[in-house]
């Protein structure tokens, strides 16, 4: 805090988040809140968030964990014990936000139902990232990204014509739900600034997935027809998609007639726009194979790089299909600082993705790397008014924990 | 405003957004700001946002337009004319947020560079949704969802093994960039509450797409190996994916050994977890085909519905691969109000997707349907201090416009 006295305050400066989330959707949300300046206190069981063991470990350490838990503190509390829940209650009393990604109802079973939380802390914003929402017939079902993709209709349109419905390779229903939740929490904090009281925010994976259907949904509502799986072809526009240059494919998206004319002009095929066989999108769509063949013949005469330079100069959106290494090493990605290197104490430098939202005045930044398990238990409890005897007693009983216990008295915690 | 005097204020109540965005990424962002209570003033050219002509039209009206422009007002201003830009300048002076999704630099060319905007209105939050960001070698390239998918590495992992890289069917790079932008704008408004000044927010499609790589990126950073395209199979876990019930497929996601044991127990195949051929994930992964065959034989003995009920009861995430109609008519989707019907004046009821973020105290709600082109030009200008003579003169010159002109004096605008 002190370091920033003369600088501008971050958007969430002074906001304390108690974070009970695990694995991906919730931790992605609280990471964004931390990136925006909130103090995020990750409450973990003695075994830690399962994500600490996921992905390829290096020196026993998970880069997956590191990359979704930067800018957080770690506190170990046994929430299965009544005393542990009493510790949590004191943390909640002094917090601004409480987030979990348990199934709806789990918090109430732990003794933290809505009424109790309101009594404890009427200004508290509570948030839950879940699978299906907290009303409706599926409310008690366990959720998972792949299932949300299946049930939301998302898989039904993904993939090539004539093949089976295809999941999206990225865990997008987790991530989109986390992102909606972060938007909801900051909005609720602003409402609290206006109204003086907190409220509950909910973000369901399946709802977020449905919201991604965008114009596919509005088309269905208008026509009653199901969208087809069309792979890399556009369902409504032709030509569009991947074309074969001499040394590989290029992706070209001529989304309207103006841009299509530019594309064909660069290929010296501009006359096709006047040809009565191809002078409307409907006709081109019907003759897509022969049109694509003509375009491939032209594109095949030069390299990817040459076409990409020429087409971009002409204002035609295009690019290479890059693999992940090419994408992450792309000079544009580097210029945008979308790969950052974090010095992880005891584990050396770890690369992770950067900050996708750029704020000019109070940019997201790395304030501290992901925490060792329980590294902040003592400091956070002290700051919440627990005295040394209480902390010692709780630690002896195994109600609280963390690696800090081993080093007590040697070096002081952060 | 008056209607809410006794209610709680919405998160963005009192926030005026000048919205220059077109088509999808930007309008998706400003729709979310409107859903959260902001007054969104959509500035359109005389021809309107191109999205008004996109998708299947009914009575000349686009449901695609309607579903991304609810809770907005429409003002027609010719920004190619100096007088039009002077009108915009006065609107900006009284606004809280200005958003565009032009390429970086276009606003400056129009006379609205950063310094000028700061001089006009130091509390203004400005935001730009763009393709590649405003620094780096590709800053001047035109962008499009398909190209952002290609270049970000997203396509490289999507699709089945042995097939070409596959775009995701949803326009997710547009939508994710819009969602990040909404999160950034609300965060910047909160920073303004703390610091007193506005700042610039930027959200690039390609950066948002890269951020969706999640653990695929952290695995690449750790191992240096490119993720494979694995279609509906999980790249690391087996069994996992689609299995054939008697009447169709079910999606099952046993993401760890505990859940896998539950899954196999329900199938009466629990003994496989003890079998030395299958007792670790690595072994199961290596013998995936034979394992999947045993599971398919068991699953084939009953219906989708029966297995889904049984597996959910046992705590195994599973579900049907639903097409869009099934997904939107699912009782869960209905219970979550993810499909809403909006009475669109002159066009009757229009169905659209609902609100994915649920706030208990100040929920997102439909305050008004998407506007007719220029319906609010007069009212907005009056509220911004333009007098009747000025408005008449601007309208005569064609600097401002809208359907309201035809009905002037007959019925009053909203």
From TrEMBL, chains A, B:
Domain of life of the native organism: Bacteria
Alphabetic keyword roster: Transferase
Pfam family for this entry, one: CoA_transf_3
Example of a GO MF term: CoA-transferase activity
UniProt key word Transferase: yes
InterPro entries found in the cross-reference section: CoA-transferase_III_domain (IPR050483), CoA-Trfase_fam_III (IPR003673), CoA-Trfase_III_dom3_sf (IPR044855), CoA-Trfase_III_dom_1_sf (IPR023606)
Protein name: Crotonobetainyl-CoA:carnitine CoA-transferase CaiB
């Amino acid at each position: 805090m002190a370091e920033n006295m003369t600088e501008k305050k971050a958007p969430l400066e002074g906001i304390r988040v108690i974070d009970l989330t695990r694995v991906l959707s919730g931790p992605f949300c609280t990471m964004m809140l931390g990136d925006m300046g909130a103090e995020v206190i990750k409450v973990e069981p003695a075994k830690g968030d399962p994500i600490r063991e996921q992905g390829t470990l290096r020196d026993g350490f998970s880069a997956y964990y590191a990359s979704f838990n930067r800018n957080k503190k770690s506190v170990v509390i046994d929430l299965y014990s009544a005393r542990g829940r009493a510790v949590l209650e004191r943390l909640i009393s002094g917090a601004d936000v409480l987030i979990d990604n348990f199934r709806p109802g789990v918090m109430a079973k732990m003794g933290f139902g809505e009424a109790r939380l309101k009594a404890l802390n009427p200004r508290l914003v509570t948030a839950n990232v879940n699978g299906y929402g907290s009303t409706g017939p599926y409310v008690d079902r366990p959720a998972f990204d792949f299932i949300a993709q299946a049930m939301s209709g998302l898989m039904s349109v993904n993939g090539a014509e004539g093949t089976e419905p295809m999941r999206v390779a990225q865990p997008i229903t987790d991530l989109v739900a986390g992102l909606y939740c972060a938007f909801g929490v900051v909005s609720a904090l602003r409402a609290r600034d206006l109204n003086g009281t907190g409220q509950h925010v909910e973000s369901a994976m399946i709802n977020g997935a449905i919201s991604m259907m965008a114009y596919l949904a509005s088309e269905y509502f208008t026509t009653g027809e199901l969208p087809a799986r069309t792979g890399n072809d556009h369902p409504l526009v032709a030509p569009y998609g991947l074309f074969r240059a001499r040394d590989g494919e290029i992706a070209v998206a001529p989304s309207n007639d103006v841009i299509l004319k530019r594309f064909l002009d660069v290929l010296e095929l501009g006359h096709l726009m006047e040809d009565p066989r191809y002078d409307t999108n409907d006709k081109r769509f019907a003759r897509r194979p022969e049109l694509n063949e003509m375009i491939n013949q032209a594109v095949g005469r030069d390299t990817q790089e040459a076409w990409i330079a020429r087409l971009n100069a002409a204002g035609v959106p295009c690019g290479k299909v890059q693999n992940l290494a090419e994408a992450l090493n792309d000079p544009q990605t580097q210029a945008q600082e979308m790969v950052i290197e974090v010095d992880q104490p005891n584990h050396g430098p770890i690369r992770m993705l950067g900050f996708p939202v750029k704020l000019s005045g109070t940019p997201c930044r790395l304030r501290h790397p992901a925490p060792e398990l329980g590294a902040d238990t003592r400091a956070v409890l002290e700051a919440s008014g627990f005295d040394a005897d209480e902390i010692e007693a709780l630690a002896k009983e195994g109600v609280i924990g963390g690696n800090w216990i081993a080093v007590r008295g040697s070096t002081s915690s952060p």
